[in-house]
Design brief:
disordered N terminus, elongated, 434 Repressor (Amino-terminal Domain), two-stranded antiparallel ribbon, 49% helix, alpha/beta, Endonuclease, Chain A, single chain
Length: 293
């Protein structure tokens, strides 16, 4: 899934998220794109590009549109301005990921991960990418799962890029990471026991980090809607303020950029977390699995 383009413009995930919020505010005010264009002394074409996330947005334009739409809540206006700022920085930045052969939607995901302040991840099939050891990655890319998950990147370059992502966990400030892993993931390692020991040890180390909340969803907790696929909720400010969700499934990935849709995923994550083992129980579970190897 490549980023859609229009001329020299690129539609970004954050740009579409921001545009969607502005469309919702405009509709609530009962106004048209023509009203917005008049307020900015611009064309309807420009408003269309802004609302579809094709172009970066200026702070004065956002403030003017909020004024037009009757939005005066400082939290709402501030959230839109912060989202626009992150989007502008994301568009012009050359990140470490540009030095690696990362393709498609994963390039956009890594860029957003690098800009995020917090991530919530639910994973019913594999160890989350941020937490994988090199041995786990190699075994996974050699397994039947690679038929639908493996990209064109050379293995060693892919592994190096994956390990570089781990820097977010030790940044100042670090990325706030909440992860829930299904028990099946921890009992079905690609490569078997050869990868299991090192990966379980790595998980226990990462779980000790103050910025990481790692939990296990055990078989005993039963079934729930989250078992149909994994998703990551990416936040850039206060929880829920500017979330986007990355949803992954065989042969397809998609972004959920709408406020209500993203909120539904957040609600699902919290329900999964509530039924999971707590942090202490999850750590004990990991230690027990290591001893069983």
């Amino acid at each position: 899934m490549n980023q859609p383009t229009l001329g020299n413009s690129t539609s970004s995930v954050l740009g579409r998220r921001l545009g969607g919020e502005l469309i919702k505010l405009r509709a609530a005010a009962g106004l048209t794109q023509g009203h917005a264009a008049k307020a900015l002394t611009s064309s309807i074409t420009k408003i269309t590009k802004m609302e579809r996330g094709w172009v970066p947005m200026r702070d004065p334009d956002i403030r003017a549109l909020c004024e037009l739409y009757g939005v005066r809540d400082p939290g709402t206006v501030g959230g839109l301005l912060e989202l626009a700022k992150v989007d502008r920085e994301r568009r012009k930045a050359k990140g470490w990921w540009d030095d690696y052969a990362i393709h498609g939607v994963m390039q956009e995901y890594i860029a957003l991960e690098s800009a995020a302040t917090a991530i919530k991840a639910w994973q019913p099939a594999f160890i989350p990418g941020l937490l994988q050891t090199p041995e786990y990655v190699r075994a996974l890319r050699e397994s039947p799962a690679a038929e639908v998950t493996k990209g064109p990147e050379p293995d060693e370059e892919f592994i190096a890029a994956r390990l570089a992502r781990r820097r977010r966990l030790s940044d100042d400030p670090p990325l706030s990471l909440r992860v829930v892993i299904y028990e099946a993931v921890l009992r079905n390692f690609p490569g078997g026991t050869a990868t299991a020991g090192g990966q379980l040890e790595e998980l226990t180390k990462i779980a000790d980090l103050a910025s990481v909340d790692l939990r296990i969803f055990p078989f005993s907790a039963g079934t729930h809607p989250g078992l149909v696929g994994s998703f990551n909720i990416i936040s850039f400010a206060a929880p829920g303020a500017m979330d986007v969700v990355y949803v992954e499934a065989p042969f397809a990935e998609r972004w959920v950029e709408g406020g209500e849709a993203a909120a539904a995923y957040d609600e699902l994550f919290e329900k999964i977390a509530e039924r999971s083992l707590d942090e202490r129980e999850s750590m004990s579970f990991l230690h027990k699995l290591r001893k069983e190897l």
